[in-house]
Write a structure and sequence with these properties.
With 257 residues, the chain is α/β, with parallel strands linked by helices. The protein has a single domain, classed as 3-Layer(aba) Sandwich (Rossmann fold), CATH 3.40.50.720. It is 41% helix and 15% strand. The chain has eight helices and seven strands. The protein has a seven-stranded parallel sheet, with helices on both faces. Helix 1 packs across helix 8, helix 3 packs parallel to helix 4 and helix 4 packs parallel to helix 5. The N and C termini lie far apart (39 Å). Bound molecules: NADPH dihydro-nicotinamide-adenine-dinucleotide phosphate.
């Protein structure tokens, strides 16, 4: 028995939604380094430039343009690869949006629906589209990007819509895990703390919030996208063969307090 071999993904095809930057890009690189052929789904070809640049490391990287809220397009991409005889065996549901700082009483219908559409519907459409081929071939591994916000309520910023969307991702993870376990398909999630990505950096007000976040974090720091990708790689691989329905904290201890 080789424990290192359990982390290898040679011969697998892994789809990473939103794999063009930040956490998704690191997931694509981690899975590629382990031997998987990668399909990045982005809303525009240009968004995938950094992923395409990974080809210079000898990795097999393909890009498909699509929006995870477009269920027909997700079905089309999944069917394309299944029809090629090499269906996706790994899916990382990474694409997501943030929306912090809006008080619940000021959240518009449109804000709420957009959050649920990308963060919840998008994860389900992709899981259903790629999962149906995993179910029929009796093997597959899905890893969802949940969040510690699905377990706790962040402070000081209000972000009810995001928190609810991630709690839904966690329960979707468990529901699909229970339903598809006997088909040989595992479904897990990671629940990260604040990670240094554009999602966090693009909100000006976060600069004042960061000291509060760090004071609430036992390890006293935010995470890097690479630290999330390592956990995603583990869950995607055979090293996690007994794990399904798990929501793995990657949170610097944030949820201990
Ligand atoms: P970023 O905003 O940096 O990147 C998100 C990626 O997803 C982008 O490439 C974006 O492309 C893509 N994307 C967004 N919406 C869609 C869509 N509808 N269809 C296809 N692609 C889309 O986010 P992070 O890397 O920070 O976050 C990745 C995941 O991790 C998210 O699910 C997030 O909720 C979760 N997470 C992040 C944390 C953090 O602190 N950063 C903490 C906990 C969880 P585009 O340019 O088109 O928008």
């Amino acid at each position: 028995m080789s424990y290192q071999k359990k982390f290898r993904l040679d011969g697998e095809r892994a789809v990473v939604t939103g794999g063009g930057r930040a956490i998704g890009l690191c997931c694509a690189e981690a899975l590629a380094e382990a031997g998987a052929a990668i399909v990045v789904i982005e809303r525009s070809e240009k968004d995938a430039d950094e992923a395409i640049a990974l080809r210079s490391k000898g990795y097999e990287i393909e890009v498909r343009v699509g929006d995870v809220t477009d269920s027909a397009r997700m079905e089309e991409i999944a069917a394309e690869f299944a029809g090629s005889g090499r269906p996706a065996t790994i899916l990382v549901n990474n694409a997501g949006i943030g929306q912090n700082g809006i008080a619940a009483e000021d959240v518009t219908d449109a804000d709420w629906l957009r959050m649920m559409n990308v963060n919840v519907n998008g994860v389900f459409w992709c899981s259903r589209a790629f999962g149906r081929h995993m179910v029929s071939s009796k093997r597959g591994s899905i890893v969802n990007l949940g969040s510690m916000s699905g377990n706790i309520c962040n402070r000081p910023q209000p972000q009810t819509a995001y928190n609810v969307s991630k709690a839904a991702v966690h329960h979707l993870t468990k529901s699909l895990a229970a339903e598809w376990a006997h088909h040989g398909v595992r479904v897990n999630a990671v629940a990260p703390t604040y990670i240094e990505t554009p999602m966090v950096a693009s909100v000006e007000a976060n600069k004042e919030r960061i000291p509060i976040w760090l004071a609430d974090t036992p390890m006293g720091r935010m995470g890097t996208p690479e630290e999330v990708a390592s956990a995603v790689l583990f869950l995607a691989s055979g090293a996690a063969s007994l794990m399904t329905g798990a929501i793995v904290n990657v949170d610097a201890g944030f949820t201990c307090w």
